[in-house]
Design brief:
Elements (H helix, E strand, L loop, with lengths): L1 E5 L6 H11 L4 H8 L3 H14 L2 E5 L10 H7 L1
Antiparallel strand pairs: 1-2
Helix pairs in contact: 1-3, 2-3
Length: about 80
């Protein structure tokens, strides 16, 4: 799985780090421990990033969700 952050150029390096981990489902405490920050700092960075506006796009390789069988794929080609 790849995560693309659209609008990342508006975010600081630390905000990008926080956004990626938060969008992956990590708690403020987990992110804080990983980045050696206070949980309050993580919350501030995340809220600041959200106010700058960004969009997260998750790119899943192949048919990892199992939505299509081989016949469907042959029709697409």
């Amino acid at each position: 799985m790849n995560i693309e952050i659209r609008g990342a150029e508006r975010l600081s390096f630390r905000e990008r780090q926080v956004v990626v981990l938060k969008e992956m489902g990590w708690s403020n405490e987990q992110v804080a421990k990983r980045l050696s920050l206070a949980a309050g700092t993580v919350a501030t960075l995340y809220n600041r990033a959200k106010s700058k506006g960004y969009q997260v796009v998750i790119v899943l390789p192949g048919d990892t969700l199992g939505l299509f069988d081989s016949a469907d794929r042959e029709e697409e080609e």
